């Protein structure tokens, strides 16, 4: 019969081994916290580095409809083509598809919700979340913080 001590030791060993197997992702663009604070505005830092959320309807990018690309404001990696932008009515810039290999997704269970977080694949900056209530052809809604993006006209 397994003793309580053996059970606790085995459980702790299992959890530590599982955590060790999940190495933190490495990114092509890396800065210290002090460098990020110097490179970004306070609002950009809050969203990109601390996974904050800007106020809805506050982004000038909501009204941006020219051809071009939306890029990560932290590292300037192109993340979304303007042709995939749509009016979601949520108050945040929304897209139905990210550019190939531009973003990473991971589970986000913060605030008592099950969501999928969207990160820049180059610097790891928090861009927003993706939901499965978007339009055709993908059915996805990449709900992005405008402050985490910059726009480059075509």
From TrEMBL:
Keyword annotations of the record: Oxidoreductase, Signal
Entry EC number(s): 1.8.4.12
Gene Ontology terms: biological process: protein repair; response to oxidative stress
Keyword Membrane assigned: no
Cited Pfam families: SelR
Catalyzed reactions per annotation: L-methionyl-[protein] + [thioredoxin]-disulfide + H2O = L-methionyl-(R)-S-oxide-[protein] + [thioredoxin]-dithiol
Occurrences of domain MsrB (ranges): 33-154
Signal peptide (from-to): 1-23
Cellular-component GO terms for this entry: cytoplasm
Gene Ontology MF terms: peptide-methionine (R)-S-oxide reductase activity
EC class (word): oxidoreductase
PANTHER family recorded: METHIONINE SULFOXIDE REDUCTASE (PTHR10173), PEPTIDE-METHIONINE (R)-S-OXIDE REDUCTASE (PTHR10173:SF57)
NCBIfam families: peptide-methionine (R)-S-oxide reductase MsrB
Name by which UniProt lists this protein: peptide-methionine (R)-S-oxide reductase
Lineage: Bacteria, Pseudomonadati, Pseudomonadota, Alphaproteobacteria, Acetobacterales
Gene name linked to the record: msrB
